Amino acid sequence: MWLRVQRWRGVVLIAIAVVATIWLSFGNQLVLYIHPRYIVFTLIMGVLALGLVIASLVVRTHPEDEEEPSPRGKVLSGIGLGVAALIAVAMVIVPPATLTSATASQRDINSTTLGAETQSVTAADAASVATFTTFTVVDWASLLRQTSDLTFYEGKPVDVVGFITADPDDPANMFYVSRFVVTCCAVDAQPTGIPVFLANWQDTYAVDDWIEATGQFGTNPSTASKQSIALHPDAVTKVDQPSEPYLY
Amino acid sequence: MWLGFGVVGIAALLGIRAFLEGSGFSLPNELQDLLTLSISVVIESLPFVILGILLSIVVQVWLPDGILMKYLPRNPVLRRLCISMFGIFLPVCECGNVPLARGLIVGGFTVPESMTFLLAAPIVNPITIITTHQAFGFDDGILVARLLGGLAIANIIGWLFSLHPRQDALLTSSFAAECRRPADEHGHSRTSKSVDIFIREASVIMPALFIGALVAGAIQVAVPRDVLVALGSNPLWSILAMMVLAFVIAVCSNVDAFFILPFANTFMPGSIATFLVFGPIIDIKMLAILRTTFTTRVLVQLTVVVGLLSALVGLVVNYVA
Question: Which structural domain range is residue A54 located in?
């Protein structure tokens, strides 16, 4: 029995992981885990793996006599296999989800210069009003990093979608409209966000709510916050999580 | 019959999932993120592991016996130097290289030779070179330091372990036993042999990949990133911080340059070079996978030596740049 489990555990784990991956791709949910540019490669290798899994059930193999591990070895690999099985099962039964504010605060919003060159101040200055409404959280965060000159933001309407993370310095009146930026997979997701001033926002909204915020940037009235500029929202509306929650 | 069990089992799990989705079930944030991160590591690594197993099958079953050996120089140092360049032709990142390196040992390479390949390949592989160049160009010598540093470290490690009097003792007992098995001469078909290797390699690598992914996810949920970023501007601390980051993040060498690019303004170039040299060789997921093949003692020695050498690469870059 033990030898049989030992022999087949890998094939079973591959089968579960591959089926879960292919299933996710049908629902367009693979993007919750990896960057879209890897999807084709992942699926090709997944189909090959599935072929090998089926071959391993169909083709007659000639397993060598393997030794049973020591009792201690059995306990250790039993625990290991249990843990692996737990993730494999979770992979299938737990509905896939985007990363949450817990990871955003852990990784410190805007702590890196990711997307620093997405928008340049000079180019943005010359752009039309229609262009600004297409700007994402990442575009605005990039501009905010480059200039805190208020005149630059005058007459530039903001319309962004993201999830709420509380500002650590003034959680009562400030939050960030945030998005994760992914370069390879969820593991490297970097949180980016723009500060919003809205007194007592927690009465109406909760952390992790997906919202669309419109308004303009102005001086930040909050004294506790470290941000000198914040979005003064005209409207904050709850929206559904976008089908591609990460930005690239 | 087993196929039937499998299909019914997976269908049942998917049924539970549909039910959970319908019932609006959700986990606490930290737990959900732990799961998302761990699954992300598995999904991202799996294609490379499969590719690695396929290449390992090709080397062991489909290439004519001894063809790789035939053209390699006899002098051990030159031989390892050639082997460390193999990776240029193999776009597989670190976790995929483990099954391949195991295949090389079974196929007659010595343990240090296979180790040299294993350590150099993820760094000199063509995709890694292209992405590193896209991210950094030739700025601050980061790309050059990564390539030369990686090759040097792989060859030094190969040389160090070649001094060990009992090569068998470097391997786990189960893998050493596998290597001692005589080459199959019962005339089993190549297909049968290939499938057998797939089953055996999957059995060894997959549990390790899942456990490595879980540990990597757990560390990410538990360790605040700003602790590391705060250390960025000090020449020595930034190097250590980057090694810790590389160890924790366990991101694949094909794309790690893009991952680290946004940190380039806060961290010194030497520490970026250290990240790019250390990360592909040692990280939490890799150690879990390497443990299938090498003893704990070897892995500790490997980690210490690679850590010191990559820190040295970083210090040199900081000094020169």
Answer: 2-93
Q: Residue A246: inside a domain, yes or no?
A: no
Residues A107 and A81 in one domain: no
The dihedrals phi and psi of A34, each to the nearest 5 degrees, come to: -135, 160
Question: Mind listing the pLDDT tens digit of every residue in chain B (321 residues)?
Answer: 666 777 788 788 878 878 887 777 778 888 999 999 999 989 988 998 898 889 888 888 888 877 777 888 889 999 999 999 988 887 777 778 888 898 888 888 899 999 999 999 999 988 888 888 877 888 778 899 999 999 999 999 999 999 999 988 999 888 888 887 766 555 678 889 899 989 988 988 888 889 888 888 887 788 776 666 677 667 788 888 889 888 887 777 877 887 787 677 778 888 999 999 999 989 888 898 899 899 999 999 999 999 999 999 999 998 887
Strand partners, A34: A185
State whether A19 and B41 contact (CB < 8 Å): no
DSSP B137: T
Contact B254, B125 (CB under 8 A): yes
Say if the Cβ atoms of A11 and B30 lie within 8 Å: no
Residues ≥6 apart with Cβ < 8 Å to B167: B110, B111, B112
Contacting residues of A for B264, CB less than 8 Å apart:
113
How far is the alpha carbon of B314 from chain A, nearest alpha carbon, in Å? Answer: 21
What tokens does B168 get? 């068998």
**Residue after which a domain boundary falls, among A76, A93, A110:** A93
Give the number of domains in chain A: 2
3-state secondary structure of A174: strand
Contact A187 B229 (CB under 8 A): no
Does residue B11 sit within a domain? no
Do the Cβ atoms of B32 and A67 come within 8 Å? no
Range of the domain at B70: 27-320
Question: Is A245 contained in some domain?
Answer: no
- Residue of chain A whose Cα is closest to the Cα of B19: A93
Same domain, A151 and A123: yes
Total count of residues recorded for chain B: 321
The one-letter amino acid at B32? Q
User: Can you tell me the ipTM of this complex?
Assistant: 0.90
